[in-house]
Amino acid sequence: MMFIVRSFLPVIRLYLLGLKVLLIQLFSRTFRLPVMPRQDGKVAIVTGGGRGIGYEVVRHMASLGVHVIIGGKDEQEGQTAVRKICQEYKEAKVEFELLDLASLQSVHQFVQSFKHRGLPLHILINNAGIMLVPEGRTQSGFELHFGVNYLGHFLLTWLLLDTLKDSGRTGHCSRVVTVSSSAHSIGKIVLNDLNSSQFYSAHAAYCQSKLAQLVFSAQLQQELQRGGFPVTSCAVDPGVVNTALYQHLWTPLRLVHGTLAPWFLRTPAEGAATVLYTALSPALEGELGGGYWADGCKEMTSPPTFDPELQLSLWESSLQLLGLRWHQMKE
Ligand SMILES: NC(=O)c1ccc[n+]([C@@H]2O[C@H](COP(=O)([O-])OP(=O)(O)OC[C@H]3O[C@@H](n4cnc5c(N)ncnc54)[C@H](OP(=O)(O)O)[C@@H]3O)[C@@H](O)[C@H]2O)c1
């Protein structure tokens, strides 16, 4: 009985939440990105920028003069994205670099090769993600959602922090934007089983990873403010967007989704609007930086995001899992 409840409860909760969010989305106005100023001279990294929301983020940034590096694990998809954007915007500076967030070694290599070039870094978009994938482990043995969506991005951000700090100025802070989801609101962080080893539910694992991203984003913002560094960290919910993220839905639902999604879900460009706003808007400096954003507005998140005990425990567990040390942050 307990097994059935544990298996089905996260499924029902996630689909009910999805339906609620979709209905609200259908009856409210879609946020349109205001015209953003040119961004020549800025450098950005966008994870998972080869398709979906990430692709639209890269495309728009490149059109404004940002030098964008797509970090992704599918080279062919990434290079195709680069070609398409360069055909559309002749002056675009877009590149692809291999980055597999499921491999800590790949994250280290990506950062090493980026730093080797001596470029500044003004914007980091932690966008790549997976949802409802069958039970599996990353190369380092972490549960896939937790490892890719959360730990991979934690490590990437951590290793790039010094460059982000060096590239920011007061009034022109570097920005870390983490693409989370409204699914965080039903997520639960199981501190004694972060890798879902005792019990696996793909739905619960996705929600946990999205809540963990939010807790990380909030804690990072606090640490950056405390240290007086010219970097801000915020999280974004892009809404319910028609992308390949839904490819692992239960087959009958996937068929329904495939038919209805083009009519009822946001387009990837609409999903990218708030991500771009938080990454580029000059209005979001100082006090207005940080937080959790949806539909172009700062929103409240679920209480666990600001639970100091949970923040600290998750932060420390993550550092330990990744073999990092706290003091590196404070330098
Ligand atoms: N779509 C929605 O309704 C929705 C709602 C809320 C939140 N989000 C969030 O939005 C973000 C973007 O998702 P999307 O909807 O644009 O989905 P998508 O089209 O499936 O894009 C996901 C991207 O992540 C990349 N990725 C996956 N695993 C990776 C790994 N191990 N290393 C590096 N890159 C990897 C994928 O690259 P590959 O092709 O190489 O796998 C792909 O480029 C995700 O974080 C998602 O959780 C989406």
TrEMBL record:
From which domain of life does this come? Eukaryota
Keyword Glycoprotein, does the record have it? no
Q: Which InterPro entries match?
A: NAD(P)-bd_dom_sf, SDR_fam
Question: Quick one: signal sequence residues?
Answer: none
Name the UniProt key words of this record, in alphabetical order.
Oxidoreductase
By what name is this protein known? Dehydrogenase/reductase X-linked
PANTHER family from the xrefs?
PHOSPHATIDYLINOSITOL-GLYCAN BIOSYNTHESIS CLASS F PROTEIN (PTHR43157:SF31), PHOSPHATIDYLINOSITOL-GLYCAN BIOSYNTHESIS CLASS F PROTEIN-RELATED (PTHR43157)
Q: What organism does this protein naturally occur in?
A: Cynoglossus semilaevis
Example GO molecular function:
oxidoreductase activity
Q: So what family is this one in?
A: Belongs to the short-chain dehydrogenases/reductases (SDR) family.
